[in-house]
Amino acid sequence: MRQFYLKVLCYVTPFVILFGLTEWYLYETGDIRSIEEVIKEQARERHTQFLRGYLSLDMNVYKWENIKQRSPHILVIGSSRVMQFRDFHFKPFEDLTYNAGGMLQSAHDVIQLGEAFNNDLLPKPKLILIGLDPWWFKKEHERTASWLVPDELIDHASKYSSRLIVLQNLFRTGFKDFRCEFRYKRNIGALAQFDNSGFRYDGSMAFSNTVFEGFVENPRYVDRGKVWEHITNGTTNRFTEYTADTALLHRVRVTLSKLQQSGTELIIYFPPFSTQSYKLLTTVKMHKEWWTFYNDYMIDLFKTEFDHLIPVECPEDYQLPDTFFQDGVHPSEVFVGIQWQRYVSNWHLKEFMFDITYLDSINNTYALPLSYQAILDD
Amino acid sequence: MLFNSLEFLIFLAFTFLLYWFMFTKLRLQNLFILLISYLFYGWWDWRYLGLIAFSSLVDYSVGRRMANSSNSLHKKFFLGISLSTNLGLLAFFKYYNFFIESFIEAFSIFGIQIHYSTLVIILPVGISFYTFQTMSYTIDIYREKIRPCHNIIEFFAFVSFFPQLVAGPIERAGNLLPQFQTKRKFNLQTAAAGLRLILWGMFKKVVIADNCAIFVNQVFDNYDQYNGLTLSLGVTLFAFQIYSDFSGYSDIAIGVGKLLGFELMRNFNYPYFSRDIAEFWRRWHISLSTWFRDYLYIPMGGSRGSKIQITRNIIIVFVVSGLWHGANWTFVIWGLINALYFLPLIITRRNRINLDHVGDGRFLITPSQFLQIVFTFLLTCIGWVFFRSATISDAFLYTANIFVLSEGQMFLPDVTIIVLILFMNVFEWSKRKEAVPFHLSNNSWINMGQYWVITILIILFGNYGKNEFIYFQF
């Protein structure tokens, strides 16, 4: 028996070392800290940002749990294009605000979210600012079902198999993404530690420091996602020519109407584009049909049902350059702040009277067009 | 609890340590095996436990009473109880809705509409496997081939023995029960062979089967969109998926058995190296094929009698075998196709010409042997289309689209999976006369290096989603 154990020991030792090192490394990055722990840590230390680099991001689990635990009165929700709304934009209700941007990836998610609120799976907020992207309503959309299925919201930090997937990725890419410089130790997750990007306590997304550094070095607009190229050539799933799915649009409207009828105020937000993207969308022929559907038909339709609506805008509407955008479709926090300030200056909802003076002061004293605050220290 | 999960690895390690260190007496070993087997089975759904306990209790009692009776009528009566209980459980849990729906459909052909409702029945995992195992026990007692078990713990442990409980091999009481009646002693060679089998089984499951599944599912779920080449590749990869999945499970089961001092029967013997369908069926799911041979085919007359009788026997065996796999007409057709393949061989008495290993004593084979192997593989692939498709019409359309030059899209699998399949086949080919395709040399370091390489391949290329074994559904 001893011989058997020796052989087994000899066989497993290299793998125990390999898995041990992986576990230690992932622990150091914070990638394997559970969502539950992250939420507690962020509540304790509000400057902590969270963004995994190797393990599955599990953003939907993270934001779902945050909504569930914090019961925000004001909820900002949509795709990554609404992630730049900050809690202080909603002063004096900043402690009651949460940004769940990124959770919605398709119209099916809107419907699923509505069901989650109506079935009390999530606490119903008093005010929801919901961003609707144009490509959600295309018949050929890549997503045909919601990814917000409660039973499938799994925190991969609890799964051992996710460590194996990390190992696979590292080996397969020849350790190209392997880094050992934990510059921002207060953050949780590899990307948050390496680049100081990640989700803040309020759910908004902090851009990577590399973005700011690049801007300081060369202060001009860079379309990092090469959106203009995709719009011009009709590439990526977002910008191919498409037919509108009116049935899906109808289901989304019904879902949102139900929410409104149940007492939740809704602000329908059509997220902005950079001026360059906006102009291309209105001029490139292949996009004409769906752009008209989204920018004219849909907005008019929603206006008849919902009191609060922010239409598609671009920096030019405010005599601003595109440097207020990270790329052709993602506005900066300063731009959404300016947009928000203009919108709430005519706001009449007594329950939520926002601090216009404060908004005015921050929107006039930002450090960079991309951020109110300059590069953060280590 | 899946074999390819961390829970199982922990479960196995604890079981092994407790089994060999704490429960050294035979009774305690059996009691321990029974308890952990029930824990293993209850992990899926504790409600299944009542069913297996009931089935075991009936067969235990029936076995003893049958042996005590000298009256052949009484014996028949008790055998009837056992068969009707086990087949009744199977019929209800597995086939109730299928039969009801088929019955209604048959009437609707003649314009008679019958209103009905089906039941929401959960199919207990592995029910087809353990009911067949216990039936073989009572039938063998009836035939006086074995004597009944007089220790209820031994018998319950035999029925629920966790390595082979949910997907076989379907053991015979004559082989497995005596092993529960003898104290197991640790044997280094057996345990090491067990670990090798577990490792190879894991490779086949996690690396080959689960990676093939990605491509196969995509192709079979959208077969109307793809061209003939893609559909051909889809079914070819399914052939390797189902082989790696099921033989991988069997290897792990046999390996775990060896770790605990048990010798389970071999279930696969490199079936894709077969030169004809008869050889294929001697090498594929051996425990089920031999079960049907011994308890259905031979009692019906086997290959004795007129050609019509032989044809009838073969068709019945293959159709029942198809139906055993699942309550769907696709499995029946799959069985029928295999019967049609088999009939010319048995009628011309050429079903036992390939009893040896192909290319015995040589690495390479003759071109005609190679062509025979390819031809047999292609025949099995046609059957697999029916096995994998959701409905018969899907299967026919899929097959038609392979042969008709359709204008569908081309979709190719990842090159990595093709290379890995080749690796598996070369590896198994080189060791095709051995039960475990390992043991390159007598130098233990070379062998250790080999295990490390396989483990690294598992880590690098394994698919770590939650992938159940295909045969669990049967």
Structural overview:
The complex is a heterodimer of chains A (378) and B (474). Chain A is an alpha/beta fold. Chain A is 44% helix and 7% strand. Chain A has one domain. Chain A has 14 helices and seven strands. Chain A has a five-stranded parallel beta sheet with strand order 2-1-3-6-7, with helices on one face. In chain A, strands 4-5 form a two-stranded antiparallel ribbon. In chain A, helix 8 runs parallel beside helix 11 and helix 13 runs antiparallel to helix 14. Chain A is globular and about 80 Å long. Chain A starts with a helix and ends in a 14-residue tail after the last helix. Chain B is an all-alpha fold and 474 residues long. Chain B folds into two domains: 178 residues, no CATH class; 207 residues, no CATH class. Chain B is built from 18 helices and no strands. In chain B, helix 6 packs across helix 8, helix 10 packs across helix 16 and helix 15 packs across helix 16. The radius of gyration of chain B is 23 Å and the shape is globular. The two termini of chain B are 16 Å apart. Classes of the chains: A alpha/beta (378), B mainly alpha (474). At the A-B interface, helix 1 and helix 5 of A face helix 9 and helix 18 of B.
Concise summary:
The complex is a heterodimer of chains A (378) and B (474). By secondary structure, chain A is of the alpha/beta class.
Q: What does the secondary structure layout of this molecule look like, with pairings?
A:
The complex is a heterodimer of chains A (378) and B (474).
Chain A lengths: L1 H28 L5 H10 L14 H12 L3 E5 L18 E5 L5 H12 L8 E5 L28 H13 L17 H6 L2 E2 L5 E2 L2 H9 L9 H7 L2 H4 L6 H16 L3 E5 L5 H9 L4 H18 L2 E3 L22 H12 L11 H9 L14
Chain B lengths: L5 H16 L4 H17 L5 H21 L3 H38 L17 H16 L9 H9 L1 H4 L7 H8 L7 H34 L6 H32 L17 H7 L2 H12 L9 H19 L3 H19 L19 H22 L3 H12 L11 H16 L13 H18 L13
Total of helices of chain B: 18
| Helical content class of chain B | 55-70%
Per the principal axes of the C-alpha atoms, what is the gross shape of chain A? globular
Note the total helix count of chain A: 14
- Biggest interface, and residues per chain? A-B, 18 and 18 residues
Q: Sheet with the most strands of chain B?
A: none
Average pLDDT score of chain A: 90
| Cα-based radius of gyration of chain B, to the nearest Å | 23 Å
Structural class of chain B: mainly alpha
Terminal-residue CA separation of chain A = 54 Å
Oligomer: heterodimer
Cα shape of chain B: globular
Low-confidence stretches of chain A: none
Identify low-pLDDT runs of chain B.
Answer: none
Mean pLDDT of chain B: 89
Give the neighbour order of strands across the main sheet of chain A.
Answer: 2-1-3-6-7
**How is the biggest beta sheet of chain A arranged?**
5 strands, parallel
